[in-house]
Each structure stands twice: as C-alpha cells, then as structure tokens.
Design a protein that fits this description.
Oligomer: single chain
Strand content: 5-15%
Shape: globular
Strand order of the largest sheet: 1-2
Helix content: 40-55%
Order of helices and strands: EEHHH
Number of strands: 2
C-alpha cells in the first residue's frame, strides 16, 4: 500500500487488476475522448500505460 486515509487507500496495481482498471476508464467515454482521444480502451492499453509509468519513476 502506498497510503491510506479514512475514505480510501492507494495501492500498486497488479496484472490481475488491468481488466477492472479498463472497465473504470471505459465507464466515462467523455473523459476518454477528451484526454486520450479514444472512446474505449482495453486491458492491453492499461498494461502499456502502467509500463510507461514505471519508466518515469
């Protein structure tokens, strides 16, 4: 776990989480279109994004 408050906690993601992460992203098409330029993403997109984020660290 990275940190936790009374209302939520932040944890590192795991491979088994990517499908659920994609579902969360896909629940808001307006966000996707405005910020990513697509109206839907898949778990492969999530994996690539996570790999890119790890490189920034």
């Amino acid at each position: 776990m990275i940190f936790e408050t009374e209302k939520f906690k932040v944890e590192l993601t795991h491979t088994e989480d990517v499908y659920e992460i994609a579902q969360v992203y896909n629940s808001n098409k307006k966000f996707l279109i405005n910020h990513i330029g697509k109206d839907k993403i898949d778990s492969n997109w999530v994996v690539k994004e996570l790999e890119d984020m790890k490189k920034i660290k």
